[in-house]
Amino acid sequence: LLESYCPRNLPEFYSTVIPVMIDCTCRVFQHVTSNLYPTTTTPHYTFNLRDVLKIFRGLALVSGKFEEISSLSLMRMWLHEVLRVFGDRISREKDSQWFYKMCSSVAIHGTKFHEDLIYSDLNLNNAHEVVTDMNKTIETLNTLLVDYNNQSSENMQMYIFS
Length: 162
What we know:
Layout: H1 2-5, H2 14-35, H3 49-59, H4 71-85, H5 93-106, E1 119-120, E2 129-130, H6 134-151
Antiparallel strand pairs: 1-2
């Protein structure tokens, strides 16, 4: 799927990185489905193959030209997508600690787990980019909130933390 979104003349490292990302995604999916079960307190712990597709759809939104993205950047983007798709559903502290430990053991090619790794599509061109300036991001969010409230009949109250 990811290769279908990529141009044909990619750097050579892509031929090794993409299969590794696929393998890592399958391992994460296997760990998650084997260890996080839906219960009465965690009914949202339902994971399926659509979650795997969401990871690769997110990767397809990489901003810039594929030719200019390093293997490290691509693996960081992969880790971000895994945390977004699976990690955002985890609600118990014990499960969260297990998940982050598992992700850091699966992460490869020098990619380390960074809690502050944030990607955004606030530039409104539907492409993910690394957030490097949190103050600018908060300013953009506040501007979007004001614009929304000016157009909407009911104001949305939102608190943005950094």
